[in-house]
Write a structure and sequence with these properties.
The protein is an alpha+beta fold. Helices cover 26% and strands 18% of the residues. It contains three helices and three strands, in the order βααββα.
Length: 85
């Protein structure tokens, strides 16, 4: 990992991005304080889900619905302001 001041990033943006593209983690600093890290995108991550993956991860009509707890009453609320008058 290398440190790059904001001024160098501003003046040599393409060079810094190319370093990240090559696999280097670049930390951007402002007045010597780290403020951000530029990292390469992992090649194993895909930016999207396939249709089958999406369907598998979403709730389907046949899936069970969570039940309420037995100790809850219909008129109970977690609202700290109380009931609306």
């Amino acid at each position: 990992m290398s440190l790059v001041p904001v001024r160098e990033l501003r003046n040599h943006t393409a060079d810094v991005i190319e370093r990240a593209r090559q696999g280097e983690e670049v930390t951007i600093t402002s007045n010597g304080v780290a403020i951000a890290t530029l990292v390469p995108i992992s090649a194993t991550k895909r930016p999207f889900l396939t249709k089958d993956e999406f369907i598998r991860l979403t709730r389907q009509p046949k899936d069970p619905v969570a039940d309420y707890y037995d100790d809850e009453e219909d008129d109970e609320t977690t609202d700290d302001l109380g009931p609306i008058q």
